[in-house]
Design goal:
The protein is of the alpha+beta class and 253 residues long. The chain contains five helices and 14 strands. The strands form two sheets. Strands 6-5-4-3-2-1-14 form a seven-stranded antiparallel beta sheet. The N and C termini lie far apart (69 Å).
């Protein structure tokens, strides 16, 4: 009997060692730790200029404590199209000449520019005023344990796609975002995506990753269940999200 009790105690101790340390953290604290481990303090001490290529389009962002300026440059044959976004102000230039853009297209272009920059600097930006965060549980994916954070946006300040819902899986030990999922509702349809981070690299202190981009094969799969569906190999790989020629310039304030 004593031998059996001894074995039970040993098994419990071994099981506890395999579990990550239990930490009572709020969604805000988890996001703050994730931003910190991904180099977010760089934005506090410097003006940051980020440049990269994505699908043959050149992107540039400039961050200071007061402003956030985003742009993309598209070159088509003999024409160059520069989209420039500063806060709610959007301007398009064709061959260096400013043009007037219809309001409906301003929203579309602004959302497109913002989306690529948003994903490139995650988790920085998840502390913006319009962001709402909720810790909805924990989940294990591929033998690792994650905090599961749900993010929604206020209509005011939340951008054109404020109705989108995001789920982030944040490593309980390293506080890095390894997976994310989101739902979208756009003019050309509604849907969900699940992304798996890979190719992690730090450039001038900032963490960048690429993503495998998946969709659910079963229509009944919900946004909250995409992590389990990925674990069970029930997602279909659609594309890869790869940032090329990433450069980060820091200017002391």
């Amino acid at each position: 009997m004593r031998y059996i009790l001894f074995l039970i105690i040993v098994l419990l101790l071994v099981s506890c060692k395999n579990e990550p340390e239990v930490m009572s953290l709020s969604a805000d604290e988890i996001i703050n730790k994730s931003i910190e481990t991904s180099g977010g303090s760089v934005f506090d001490s410097s003006a940051v200029i980020i440049k990269f290529d994505f699908r043959d389009i050149f992107y540039k962002s400039t961050f200071t404590p007061e402003t956030r300026v985003l742009s993309r440059l598209i070159v088509k044959e003999q024409d160059s199209i520069l989209d420039f976004l500063k806060g709610e102000m959007f301007q398009r230039y064709i061959n260096e000449k400013a043009i007037i853009v219809e309001d409906s297209m301003v929203k579309k272009y602004s959302a497109s520019v913002n989306s690529v920059h948003y994903f490139s600097t995650l988790p920085y930006g998840l502390n913006d005023k319009a962001v709402n965060k909720e810790l909805i549980g924990e989940e294990r994916i591929k033998e690792k344990y994650y905090y599961k954070i749900k993010v929604t946006f206020d209509e005011e300040g939340g951008g054109e796609d404020f109705e989108d819902i995001f789920i982030y899986w944040i490593d309980k030990q390293l506080f890095k975002i390894d997976y994310l999922a989101y739902s979208y509702n756009e003019d050309d349809g509604v849907g969900m995506r699940f992304r798996e981070a890979y190719n992690e690299r730090y450039i001038n202190g900032l963490r960048f990753v690429d993503y495998n981009n998946y969709k659910a094969e079963k229509d009944a799969t919900t946004l909250l269940d995409l992590g389990k569906a990925f674990e069970n190999n029930q997602l279909k790989l659609l594309s890869k999200i790869e940032l090329e020629n990433v450069k980060v310039d820091l200017i002391d304030l």
